[in-house]
């Protein structure tokens, strides 16, 4: 049993069950025992691999999309180049390398990294210094200094805590984490229904609400609508809102039980891109997409970049494999499961690859 599992079980025994949202927040972000707070979870030796860790091509495409949009917005002489949840810092380092050729971009940019994990902050400093860059670390979006903002968030929203509700004959009840007869963590339901949810659905249906994600999106879109710039949000999830339990835990590249050893497994939920888009539009920003990651990267020219890299590569097959992992549909690729949306200031030029506002 993980250390956090013991702590949570004792707290639940003393004070009653936790909501799924509180459980997820503690499992990932507990200051001492939270999953992201104590380790580097990426890569072959870790628990999962993200797009920038698969290939430099991912960050190069994102970097050129951001820089192209910055130029078409008039190349403002000061702007914030921001990443939310930068992991090992690989994506920002690739963005920085790829945009070296864009006149004025580096001089105008101030890199800001929104990151809560001390372990990953240290790793990000190291990764960025290898490409001659430095960034300011902040823990929250509202600490990002003012100015127009070009931002990317890859696999960030899936780590923000969600609420879950289950339909029963007496209405929608919040899903809770309590203890079973043996003292182990187990799911249950709040005794009282939660009246604000009025949808009808068959009993047993699960509804997820990405409360933290939606409020993050609201602040982000308000900021872009007011100060200008562009936010690219990439993650796995669905283009249409729907029902279902998408909470999942991963350890060593395999799915494990969600309540298994909190703090030692990654815990994520699929992102509801339709809900994020609605929030962005509601606060007066333009929203582009959702589009699949595969279609987006192809529209930005990733196949041409792969061909260039292959000419110089000692192992050209590895470039093809990376391209397929990033863009292919089906179970082996990220191309369909991962989606992208962009948020821009109303009336600004559309970002490359994403077409007109939806
Ligand atoms: N974008 C990276 C890593 C994704 S993992 C990549 O593509 O490889 C999620 C990242 O978000 C980690 O860096 C984690 O520490 C960070 N994170 C999770 N919750 C956060 C929060 N509430 N605020 C800021 N960063 C958070």
Count of β-strands:
16
Major β-sheet profile: 8 strands, mixed
Q: By helix and strand content, what is the structural category?
A: alpha/beta
User: DSSP helix count?
Assistant: 13
- The H-and-E topology, N to C, reads as HEHHHHEHHEHEEEEEEHEEEEEHEHHHE
Under CATH at level 1, the class stands as: Alpha Beta
CATH architecture: 3-Layer(aba) Sandwich
Poorly predicted parts:
none
**Which strand-content bin applies to the residues?**
15-25%
Radius of gyration: 21 Å
How confident is the prediction overall: mean pLDDT?
96
Bound molecules: S-adenosyl-L-homocysteine
Task: Supply database-style keywords.
358 residues; alpha/beta; Rossmann fold; eight-stranded mixed sheet; five-stranded antiparallel sheet; 13 helices; 36% helix; globular; binds S-adenosyl-L-homocysteine
Descriptive notes:
This protein has one domain: Rossmann fold. The strands form three sheets. Strands 2, 3, 4, 5, 10, 14, 15 and 16 form an eight-stranded mixed beta sheet that branches. Strands 1, 6, 7, 8 and 9 form a five-stranded antiparallel beta sheet that branches. Helix 5 (about 55-70) crosses helix 6 (about 90-100) and helix 12 (about 300-310) runs antiparallel to helix 13. The mean pLDDT is about 95. A hairpin with a 5-residue loop joins strand 7 and strand 8 (about 185-190). It is built from 13 helices and 16 strands. It is α/β, with parallel strands linked by helices. It binds S-adenosyl-L-homocysteine. S-adenosyl-L-homocysteine binds near residues 115 and 156.
